[in-house]
Amino acid sequence: MTRTGVTRPDPAAPPGDSPNLRRLRTALALSSTGQWLSVGALTAMAGVLARDDAPLDRAPAIGLVLALLLAPAVLLAPLVPAVGRLDRRTVLVAADLVRLVLLVSVPLVDAQVWTAVAALLVGVAALPWTTVVTTTAPALAGADHAERARTAALRTVFGAAPVAGVLFAVLSLVADAVAGAATRADLVLYVTAAVFLASAIAVVTLGDLPRGADRVPSPLGLLLRNGSAAGLAVLGLALAGGAIVAVAQVEAVTLGAGNPGYGSVLAGLALGAAFGAFEGPRVLAVFSRVRLLGLAVPAGALLLLVLALVHNLVVVVFLAGFFGVAAGIAWSAARSVVPDRIGHLRSVALVGALVAVAVLPPVAAAIGTHRLGDDYAFTGAQAILLAGAVLAALLGFVALRRLDDRRGIPLVPDLVAALRGERYTPPLEEASRPLRPAERGVFVAFEGGEGAGKTTQARLAAIWLRDHGYDVVTTHEPGATKIGMRLRAMLLDRDTTGLSPRAETLLYAADRADHVANVILPAMARGAIVVSDRFVDSSLAYQGYGRKQPVEDIAKLNGWATQGLVPDLTVLLMVQPEAGLRRLPAPADRIESEPAEFHERVRDGFLALAETEPDRYLVLDASRPQSELSRQIQDRIREILPDPVPAAAEDVTSTFPAITD
Ligand SMILES: Nc1ncnc2c1ncn2[C@@H]1O[C@H](COP(=O)(O)OP(=O)(O)O)[C@@H](O)[C@H]1O
Ligand SMILES: Cc1cn([C@H]2C[C@H](O)[C@@H](COP(=O)(O)OP(=O)(O)O)O2)c(=O)[nH]c1=O
């Protein structure tokens, strides 16, 4: 604030940040801390109220409370838009106050059934807050900074978990010190209620919040759509992580550490996960993200295996922390592997955790405790942790096998080089690649939305290929031939008005037919590698999905135009349309100036095309640094390269001594 009371923009604040947005994030931090604390507080209370003699018999009651807390997020998300029509601040305050009342009521009612009902209602009351991340914070930041605001809000939600974990452990210790070992969870329940009060007050002090359509995608819908092997790895971790949380309290009580012990395990897990997710992008930065994912998941599984077998709380807390780190790194790697399917990954994690906490505790209780020798008891809790570890490791390996983006490059030297901060590049002739007849060249197409970096990456790939002695032809669409240049002018000139979608499609196809006949096929016939900036997929995405014309028809038309030529590899660079368009210099051409929804449809179209033929596509997150992208592209191109020297010629030349100077 200046002396005149006018708020000046904070020069250090990220673009799009406003005082109101910052206050909203503070409220979100408080509310999220309360929600995470509720998890510890209500499960602790469920454990106390179960009152069974053997700690393991309390597991199903604890699992039930966890499942009821999570279930609304999975099952009721589609109902959230209904609250979007109400006043935003009133809904958020009501959501906090409802949770406050519920948490205070739990120790007063003091009944197992009410604790379970309260858990369900706390889960329901948390739902309106999800719209702060999906809608309100991005709307407050404005269109240009919406994505950044969404990310910051998500970080706030998950960053609150370790804070709540540590707070829960400390409060449990205090309660233990004051009231003795047989404490209930009253203190932490009341403190959680107070945190919700603080959140409600923070919301009241907020300025106006924008209304707007709430978009809370249904986790169940996302679970089934956009499946990916990366999702399998995340599922493995979610099941394993869910197993830890589901039996943490039982383990802590069995080891004589009570709620402070339980809180320490939760805090360790949450701190580790937050650290891993935050640092993930910097871990082995030059190493393939797929391989990092494929290694982090089994590493987490191994930690879980040891965790299941030791009977020492301090060791368990550290192992839970390291498991969290592995899980966090794996999560960040999975996000970079399928940047376009993060919603799917989140749904897998949520549903996996829900299944784990609902199903595993009753199984643990049913297995019971078995004495092995005189001083080692093996419990059902350990059994499900072991099962979680094995399953996670298996799913991690499946993901690595299915997705490996450095096939043919040995894992160990690749990892050793990455540990030294270097990128392992096998000599070209050592890389395993199917040899292709040299008389037919190779055709690589670069596709993607506006400003995705196609021209940049096509150029870098061509330079790299030429460095390795290949005959390379770089070309582009539309407009690579004389006729094509005239067609391009017609197609992209903003003065061209009223061009019908069919005519547009035919003109692009005419340009392509000329391009294939006069540039691409002659180059391939002499064995060259052709690198094209755009090809048929652009027509399918722009004229098909963008202009809403039948994709099948366009594919048929282009099959004829191209004489059936299909790229050996299509590199698809995915970028958020608005980010891509921002990268381009003004003024926009006729297609670039289409509305945002058109470009969204084009983007979705490209993805749908890649999904139908995953082996032919390399899909990359174009927001990553250019050098990283080009390395991944090189790795993939290497797999399809022909021998640089025709096999027949090599038979002769290889008998001569090499002259290197
Ligand atoms: N990975 C990247 N990160 C940031 N900027 C990039 C990246 N790749 C390309 N750019 C920049 O974005 C702009 C558009 O890139 P360009 O290769 O012409 O995209 P396209 O051919 O897909 O329209 C250029 O200024 C380029 O330097
Ligand atoms: C090849 C092709 C391009 N287009 C559009 C996409 C681009 O907006 C424009 C090509 O313009 P261009 O300036 O080459 O852009 P970029 O660098 O993004 O490739 O033509 C189609 O709509 N259909 C097609 O089949």
From TrEMBL:
Enzyme type, top EC level: transferase
Question: Which Gene3D superfamilies does UniProt cross-reference here?
Answer: MFS general substrate transporter like domains (1.20.1250.20), P-loop containing nucleotide triphosphate hydrolases (3.40.50.300)
Q: Catalyses which reaction?
A: dTMP + ATP = dTDP + ADP
Gene Ontology CC, one term = cytosol
The source's domain of life comes to: Bacteria
What InterPro entries does the entry give? MFS_trans_sf, P-loop_NTPase, Thymidylate_kin-like_dom, Thymidylate_kin_CS, Thymidylate_kinase
Give the protein family.
Belongs to the thymidylate kinase family.
Indicate what this protein is called per its UniProt record: Thymidylate kinase
Organism (species): Actinomadura rubteroloni
Name the gene that codes for it. Answer: tmk
